[in-house]
Amino acid sequence: MKRTLVTASLMAAGLFSLPTLAADIEVSVTNLTHGNHFTPLLIAAHDADSHLFQVGTEASAALQKMAEGGDITDLDTAVTGNAGVTSANPAMGLLAAGMSVSDVMLDTGDNTHLSIVAMVLPTNDAFVGLDGWEIPTEAGTYTMYVNAYDAGTEANDEIINGGGMSGVPGIPAAPGGDGGTNGTGVMDNSDNSYVHTHPGVLGDMDPAGGMSDLDSRVHRWLNPVAKVVVTVK
Q1: CA separation (Å) from 183 to 5, 6, 165, 170, 179?
Q2: Burial class of residue 117, CB neighbours in 10 A (0-12, 13-18, 19+)
Q3: Integer Cα distance of 212 and 133 in angstroms
Q4: Cα 39 from Cα 66, distance rounded (Å)
Q5: What is the pLDDT of residue 15?
């Protein structure tokens, strides 16, 4: 991540001054899916050159950790280490379908862009993502509908037991116990190893077999998967 720095000596000499860009913003995120959960959200304000992810590029190790297991720790550390500000896990756990987290306040300081990520459960490596949205300087309320992306780091086999959707300790693969078992695996012939728009899951209606361990009546989704409302104070 790159950040342009101004030397303290020039600032002290008063040769030029930087505009005040500080803005208080309020963020809300709504899960628009029918039966999927979001893992802990990371809401981050940062500079124009920083990104949590970029479509068409390979996922970083930190992004892979979030997209496959819901762990936002490394992404959070990267943002704050580059003078960004974050709200980590504002929902205090999983955000269920149809639910919202609101009143998330951020003092952005001189950070000009907003990003949001969270893993979509249950999937192999899908995540809801807002990448580097420029925060308006004019006060008002702004609404966005946000897609889910595929990190490109794991095949979308839709298998829970022994597959890639087991998540991390404390994060169930299929919240609510509505996942199946003994699926043979969805044939995913995609060779796109870059971050890309997620095609959604297939699922099936066989709880004890079939191709997928996901119930298509519960877990199938199409983009967009989230509604984001930002109020600039």
Answers
A1: 53, 56, 13, 23, 10
A2: buried
A3: 35
A4: 9
A5: 38
